[in-house]
Amino acid sequence: MDFIEIVKELFLGIWNEFIYILPFIAIGVLLEATIRTLKWHVKIRHALTKFGGWAIILATILGTVSPLCACATLPLVISLLLAGLPLAPAMALLVASPLMSPAGYTLLNWELGAVWANIVLFSAIALGLFAGYLTHLLRPYGFSEDVIFRKQLPEGNFHDPDYPVEELRCDCGQQLSHRVDRCTHNKFYVFLAKFWEGTLKIGKFALIGITVEVIALQFIPNEWISMLLEGTGIMPIFALTFATIPLHMPQVTAAAMLYGFVSPEFGEGIELSKGAGIALLVGGPVTALPVMALFISMFRKRVLALYLAVCVSGTLILALGYRWLPFNF
Predict the structure, then answer these.
(1) Phi and psi of 251, rounded to 5°?
(2) Do residues 129 and 91 touch, judged by C-beta distance below 8 A?
(3) What is the pTM of this model?
(4) Is the predicted pLDDT of residue 313 greater than 90, yes or no?
(5) Which of 51-55, 93-97, 215-219 has the lowest mean pLDDT?
(6) Taking each helix axis from N to C terminus, what angle separates 251-262 and 3-38, rounded to the nearest 10 degrees?
(7) Closest by Cα among 50, 140, 41, 145 to 93
(8) Is 284 within a domain?
(9) Which of 2, 99, 267, 302 is 20 to 30 Å from 206 by CA-CA measure?
């Protein structure tokens, strides 16, 4: 097969899979656009600083309905910390948010089935609570809000275009939905703009996952992929968990990539093992190099160490625990 034929086959595979899942991307984006237009997540976020001991649970719930990935959640978490939110609920939000979203849940239902969607939802809640309560227990040992930052951050609004810390400065005012809101104040037009923004974002992440999967099926021996995704031992769990630490793999990307491997229609019909599935669907989205870079620049090293310890140990506990369940999904 010559180069042109290989390229044609790759593009055809990517196109067919993307068109197949497009209606379900639209459903997920519709849910997220509704939440963002009505600002439900913002209302819950504002309540976090007032709920005391319930804040960890509330932050975990907010994380599962938030449409933000890890890179977008961290600046939000820092702004909440500066507003008086304790580190424990902030850590719960930071860990739970990348693992689940309305679009992610919808796509998981379609691509891998309702069982896997509910398992990842449960994992997001469990890992968020684990992160929050562990951080709360460690608060007296150098994890209180007054000693976690590397330097004192200047006061001000992250949404201000003149905020002096460039890494935290938010450019959301330039987004289409905000411009539409300023010009029209019409919620329906704002909803359409947010739907368009969500379609571009979720579609991009899904397309990345499909592209990785199609290229992998084309060039990587199938037995290597099967060994990782179908493997019943513990080595595939550890391999996938640690291999995904530096990758920027949002939840939608991970789900789209796995779909191509397990789908009998578009992929190889690989039977995804319980432990490997959790290692990829949980371990992949929760860690990323951009997040760790911002952690290093803003927080003391022990905060990054705690975050990584929670993410890696939590992923391994969930993956090994599901592997040892006495029944199949």
Answers:
(1) -60, -40
(2) no
(3) 0.79
(4) yes
(5) 215-219
(6) 140
(7) 41
(8) yes
(9) 2
Structure token pair of residue 188: 């329906």
- Confirm whether 329 is domain-assigned: no
Q: Rounded distance, CA 128 to CA 249, Å? A: 18
Cα–Cα distance, 242 to 244 (Å, whole number): 5
Contacts (Cβ under 8 Å, ≥6 apart) of 42:
none
Which residue's structure tokens are 């907010």? Answer: 62
Confidence (pLDDT) at 205 = 72
Those residues with Cβ within 8 angstroms of residue 175's Cβ, 6 or more apart along the chain or in another chain: 193, 197
* Helical spans, DSSP H, in the chain: 3-38, 40-47, 55-65, 70-82, 87-96, 102-111, 114-138, 176-184, 187-219, 222-229, 235-243, 251-262, 274-286, 289-298, 301-323
CB contact set of 245 (below 8 Å; sequence gap of 6+): 283, 287, 308, 312
Q: Quote the domain boundaries for residue 312.
A: 3-323
- Sign of dihedral through CA atoms 239, 245, 250, 251? positive
What's the domain count of the chain?
Answer: 1
Residue 122 predicted with pLDDT over 90: yes
Is residue 282 assigned to a domain? Answer: yes
Give the phi and the psi of residue 80 in degrees, each rounded to 5: -70, -40
- Ordered DSSP codes for 83-141: TT--HHHHHHHHHHGGG--HHHHHHHHHHT-HHHHHHHHHHHHHHHHHHHHHHHHHGGG
The answer to whether the beta carbons of residues 123 and 282 sit under 8 Å apart is: yes
Is residue 145 over pLDDT 90?
A: no
| Distance of alpha carbon 301 from alpha carbon 282, whole angstroms | 23
Tell me if 165 is assigned to some domain: yes
* Residue 18 pLDDT exceeds 70: yes
